[in-house]
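Bug #2210: token dump truncated for Flavodoxin?
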Amino acid sequence: MYCCTKINDDIIWIGINDRKTERFENYIPLDNGVTYNSYLIMDEKICIVDGVEEGENGNFLSKIEAMIGNSPVDYIIVNHVEPDHSGSIKNMLKIYPELKVVGNAKTIMMLKLLGLDLPDERVVIVKEKDILDLGKHKLTFYLMPMVHWPESMATYDITDKVLFSNDAFGSFGALDGAIFDDEVNTDFFTDEMRRYYSNIVGKFGAPVNAILKKLSSVEISCICPSHGLIWRKYIKEIIERYQKWANMEPTKEGVVIVYGSMYGNTAEMAEILGRELGNRGIKDVIIYDSSKTDHSYIFSTIWKYKGLMLGSCAHNNDIYPKMEPLLHKLENYGLKNRYLGIFGNMMWSGGGVKRIKEFANTLTGLEQVGEPIEIKGHVTSAERDRLIELANLMADKLIANRK
Ligand code: FEO
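Reproduced locally. Full output below:
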């Protein structure tokens, strides 16, 4: 028997745990896997909300069959066209000749752009707050453009007050046991939710705020996202967390120090900064070697903390190659509301600190702490004192923020 789990009397989780795909969107590591959540609503009309990635089709279709036997599926609601949710539709259309694809006008246009043969008679186009009547369950729709693509929307079951939020409130990580937030230790998933949010949706704070505003007057008993845990106990808490993230507000005191270093001198600068921050009582200091830790994790940690310190050696008159993609992504996402410290090593040419200064000038929402410290080679005693001073300026800022 395939693993399916009841959300309530009529709604069944028929999602897939994918532990074999290496990278999400072919660049973000899935060290702990990912789920493609899909939900079956058993009613006079049988409806599936969100599909799965094409490679997982086999088990997915078997799960549907295990639940409904030879009955037809009437609707597949496509909240989001990205192939991790729509890859299964092509086969579903073949297997279920009565099946209709439900989406907004952009959904249908984008499914066709991705090569799906979708004749008009197999399409139901919905608009904001239209009702899809399944019998007992009445479903309605909230458009949420850019959370994560232009066509993204959420489906709301008016009958049971269940929100199918698609990418919103989703997290990386396979569901290794229970599927509900009140049945597991949520620490892992809140970290993986932040990694998902910051890397996938983080650029689109204004659209996230818009959908949070729309949903603020909607009673929600359960949030069923398209990735990760299903939320029924900590709904208020995750919505509050989303509000902070949407405004790029850090959620915790602490400093992320990221450096690029070839021979250890810039790394030693980071160590001195970190040690002094610790001496000043900053309990969360996280130091990353940009060469070693995947940027999706660094990015996620930056999203959490108020302090950021960036350092680089010089490489061919420029920044260290592993630092550049991180800076580029932070610029692209428009990071703000952070204190920034800058340090690095110029040797004979410089270039690393110069690039970080350009970064600081580009992102006007960052507050630079102290002056950039750029040394030549090994850290001298005088330079060590300057680094300690910079760390203290950062600590002063953070401590002044304590309520
Ligand atoms: Fe889960 Fe934007 O795809």
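Output looks complete on our side. The first helix runs from residue 57 to 68. Marking as cannot-reproduce; reopen if the truncation happens again.
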